[in-house]
Design goal:
Layout (H helix, E strand, L loop, with lengths): L3 E3 H14 L12 H21 L4 E3 L6 H30 L1
Antiparallel strand pairs: 1-2
Helix pairs in contact: 1-2
Length: 97
């Protein structure tokens, strides 16, 4: 049985753990403030996207999925990326101009 969790709260925890030093680089140093700033920006863009499209992003533990469930999740995220990519490219083009 596929058990899913909302993605945004997990991502926010990831950002906070990075900021508070719970996550470290592979050399044992803290994550830089510039990287954390990028994480926060990505989080805010994802929140904005979810509000505009009225969707909730979700994740499932891939280790506990059947092959059919795994393929379903793979399709879900592939479709999300295809929906998000044009928006990102448009934003990037606006930044360059």
């Amino acid at each position: 049985m596929k058990v899913t969790q909302p993605f945004l709260p997990l991502y926010k925890k990831f950002v906070n753990d990075s900021k508070n030093g719970k996550r470290l680089n592979k050399d044992g140093k803290r994550i830089s403030t510039g990287t954390i700033k990028n994480y926060k920006q990505a989080y805010s863009l994802l929140c904005k996207y979810c509000l505009e499209k009225e969707i909730e992003l979700r994740v499932a533990n891939a280790n506990k999925l059947t092959k059919k469930e795994f393929l379903s999740e793979q399709k879900y995220w592939k479709n999300f990326i295809h929906l998000l990519l044009p928006i990102y490219i448009k934003m990037d083009a606006m930044t360059i101009m």
